[in-house]
Each structure stands twice: as structure tokens, then as C-alpha cells.
């Protein structure tokens, strides 16, 4: 229970920092020739950066992890050999893989809504 409270406090403080931080811009050095550092994330605010991270998570990271978890659950069911507990474990693994992927998809929608509201 204590770990959940700590994680909740960290997430709330992280969200508050994202909302109230000022825009992030690359810096330029004014010398005889101006040297500018471009933002590698192609975003000018923390919400834009968060949106880019979540989109990358949705497209490149979450689908392979979900597929691997479904395969692991299928192998758990396959190798249960009549043991009902192992069969339930496999079903739960597949269910939790789908729930986790749904959470990732919902997170992308929420960040899109927040980005539209703040623009």
C-alpha cells in the first residue's frame, strides 16, 4: 500500500510539472556566426513532447510487447497439461496483455484531447 501511495504522489507531481512548466526551446549562441541547437523531439512544449513519446509507445513498443505477452499466455495454456491453475494463469496473462494495450491506446487519446484543449 505504501508503494502505491508513493507511486501516486510521483505521478501527480510529474503531471503538475508537465502542465505548469514553460515551453521548451532549443538554445542559440550569438557569436560571429549564430549556432542553434534544434530540438530533436520536434516539439515546443512539454505536452507536445509527452504526446510524441506516447505516440512512439503506441506505434513501436506496445504492439510487440502485447503480442509477446499473448504468446506467453498461449504457451502457458498449451503446457498446462490439465492443471486448472496453470490454465487460469495463461488466461489471465492474455487478458492482462489486452488490458495493458487498451490502456496505452486510451493514453494516446487522452493526450490528444489535452493537447487540443491547451492549444
Shape, principal axes of CA atoms: elongated
Low-confidence stretches: none
Number of strands: 2
Reading the helices and strands in chain order gives HEEHH
Structural class: mainly alpha
Average predicted local confidence, pLDDT: 79
* Fraction of residues in helix: over 70%
Description:
This protein is mainly alpha-helical. It has one domain. It is 73% helix and 3% strand. It contains three helices and two strands. A two-stranded antiparallel sheet has the order 1-2. Strand 1 (28-29) and strand 2 form a beta hairpin. Helix 2 runs antiparallel to helix 3. It is elongated, with a radius of gyration of 21 Å. The two termini are 38 Å apart. The relative contact order is 0.10. The mean pLDDT is 79.
Which terms would index this structure?
single chain; 119 residues; 3 helices; 2 strands; 73% helix; 3% strand; elongated
Provide a short characterization of the protein structure.
This protein is mainly alpha-helical and 119 residues long. The protein has helices at 2-20, 46-78, 84-118, and strands at residues 28-29, 35-36.
Topology:
Elements: H1 2-20, E1 28-29, E2 35-36, H2 46-78, H3 84-118
Antiparallel strand pairs: 1-2
Helix pairs in contact: 2-3
Amino acid at each position: 500500500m505504501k508503494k502505491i501511495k508513493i507511486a501516486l504522489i510521483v505521478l501527480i507531481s510529474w503531471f503538475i510539472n508537465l502542465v505548469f512548466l514553460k515551453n521548451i526551446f532549443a538554445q542559440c549562441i550569438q557569436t560571429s556566426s549564430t549556432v542553434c541547437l534544434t530540438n530533436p523531439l520536434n516539439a515546443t512544449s512539454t505536452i507536445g513532447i509527452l504526446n510524441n513519446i506516447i505516440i512512439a509507445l503506441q506505434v513501436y513498443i506496445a504492439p510487440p510487447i502485447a503480442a509477446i505477452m499473448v504468446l506467453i499466455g498461449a504457451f502457458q495454456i498449451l503446457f498446462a497439461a490439465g492443471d486448472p491453475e496453470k490454465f487460469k494463469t495463461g488466461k489471465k496473462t492474455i487478458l492482462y496483455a489486452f488490458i495493458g494495450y487498451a490502456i496505452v491506446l486510451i493514453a494516446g487519446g487522452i493526450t490528444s484531447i489535452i493537447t487540443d484543449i491547451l492549444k
